[in-house]
């Protein structure tokens, strides 16, 4: 069983006493199994590229998921995300399981829609709707046929309650409760050899309030409670390997930068007859702590000069820590199509806003990720407990690319199907 607690920093459970946190289940996992002090994520350090790395063991440049967004058009009102597994260029853990005659299940796992998963309820929604947490229709349509309806019947009152959550409750909290109950139903009903579960409430709260804010730490405690529920339920059925991990960490922010304001002022976007901006030659994707820029067709010399002026102007605001060029992107195993990626300075994050000042105090977010994975605070988590796993083993710092082969080995699957050449982790 693999639980991904989105955004979970390892320090919140490795130094929980200093933070005043009650996380008994995570602490029990650490003392009962093997754990990493830190896991180096990918670039950009965001949910969808990182989750694709977790299940393939490869970096984004190889697996093909470079961003959370599947659209390079920042003028598009409802941009689709990288929901579909067909976008991955290499085999994933579920492909390894199927090739070996094993069954897999997943609940809310990113980049899993349409995957070769036997019992699958993917993370997907209609981007045109105001509240993705209430879009059950899209999830049902892309789940394993009839599975979503079966889970709804099994969850009964809990499902009905989630359609009208309390006004003072974070929507992601109820979403996590549903995901946990759905995962436990699939575990009991179908006994999959591999179960993947993605929890989101900490990521939601850490974005809004900051990574160590009271509301975010409360979300960690709630996540700990859900992890305990999954572990205790699974152990009732017999021996089980439980892996708790995350995709990235979090850093605090106080200011928002909007590169699209400067890029549009330089004429790098066209305008419709009624004055609205539309795509020209330049594409862009904001990822919190980073901002990727793409040429959608061969640029003219003047377009290149305009981009250079825009980047120079943005650097003068103090919001840019680094311009990551194509050479460094290749070394990082990142997006091969990006012309460059802007790296946010400390305390800054990027938005997709076209209007208003280039830089302003943040009106919404107090936490972000997406920056270079070497950034302190963006370390991801890994804890594993189960048969054959050493007790209290400190793995030190490991790479996110090492996890897939480790999972395959724990299930007893051949790892040669994976495209990963990462060094496997020794948990014994």
Account of the protein in words:
The structure is a single chain. It is globular and about 65 Å long. The protein folds into two domains: 2-250 and 377-411, Alkaline Phosphatase, subunit A; 253-368, Gyrase A, domain 2 (2-Layer Sandwich). A hairpin with a 5-residue loop joins strand 9 and strand 10 (277-278). The model has no long low-confidence stretch (mean pLDDT 95). The strands form five sheets. It has an eight-stranded mixed beta sheet with strand order 5-4-6-1-7-18-2-19. Strands 8, 15, 16 and 17 form a four-stranded mixed beta sheet that branches. Helix 8 packs across helix 10 (171-190), helix 10 runs parallel beside helix 12 (214-236) and helix 13 packs across helix 14. Helix content is 35%, strand content 18%. By secondary structure, it is α/β, with parallel strands linked by helices. It has 16 helices and 20 strands.
């Amino acid at each position: 069983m693999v639980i991904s607690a989105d955004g979970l920093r390892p320090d919140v459970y490795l130094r929980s006493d200093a933070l005043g946190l009650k996380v008994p289940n995570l602490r029990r996992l650490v003392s009962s199994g093997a754990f990493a002090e830190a896991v180096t994520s990918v670039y950009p350090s965001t949910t969808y590229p990182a989750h694709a790395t977790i299940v393939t063991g490869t970096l984004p440049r190889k697996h093909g998921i470079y961003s959370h967004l599947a659209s390079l058009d920042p003028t598009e009102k409802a941009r689709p995300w990288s929901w579909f597994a067909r976008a991955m260029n290499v085999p994933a853990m579920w492909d390894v399981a199927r090739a070996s005659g094993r069954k897999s299940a997943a609940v809310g796992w990113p980049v899993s829609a349409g995957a070769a998963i036997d019992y699958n309820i993917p993370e997907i929604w209609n981007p045109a709707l105001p509240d993705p947490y209430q879009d059950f229709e899209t999830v049902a349509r892309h789940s394993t046929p009839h599975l979503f309806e079966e889970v709804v019947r099994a969850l009964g009152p809990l499902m009905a309650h989630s359609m009208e959550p309390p006004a003072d409750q974070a929507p992601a909290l109820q979403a996590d409760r549903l995901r946990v109950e759905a995962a436990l139903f699939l575990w009991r009903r179908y006994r999959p050899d591999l179960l993947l579960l993605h929890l989101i409430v900490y990521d939601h709260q850490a974005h809004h309030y900051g990574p160590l804010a009271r509301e975010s730490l409360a979300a960690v405690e709630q996540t700990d409670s859900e992890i305990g529920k999954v572990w205790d339920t699974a152990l009732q059925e017999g021996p089980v390997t439980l892996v708790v991990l995350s995709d990235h960490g979090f850093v605090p922010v106080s200011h928002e930068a909007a590169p699209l304001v400067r890029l549009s002022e330089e004429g790098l976007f066209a305008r419709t007859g009624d004055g609205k901006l539309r795509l020209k030659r330049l594409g862009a994707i904001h990822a919190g702590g980073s901002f990727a820029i793409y040429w959608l067709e061969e640029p003219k010399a003047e377009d290149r000069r305009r981009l250079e002026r825009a980047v120079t102007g943005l650097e003068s605001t103090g919001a840019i820590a680094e311009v990551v060029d194509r050479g460094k992107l290749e070394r990082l195993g990142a997006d091969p199509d990006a012309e460059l990626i802007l790296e946010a300075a400390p305390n800054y994050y990027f938005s997709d806003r076209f209007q208003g000042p280039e830089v302003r105090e943040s009106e919404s977010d107090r936490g972000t990720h997406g920056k270079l994975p070497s950034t302190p605070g963006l370390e991801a988590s890994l804890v594993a407990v189960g048969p054959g796993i050493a007790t209290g083993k400190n793995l030190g710092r490991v790479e996110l690319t090492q996890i897939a082969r480790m999972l395959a080995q724990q299930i007893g699957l051949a790892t040669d199907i994976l495209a990963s050449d990462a060094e496997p982790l020794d948990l014994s």
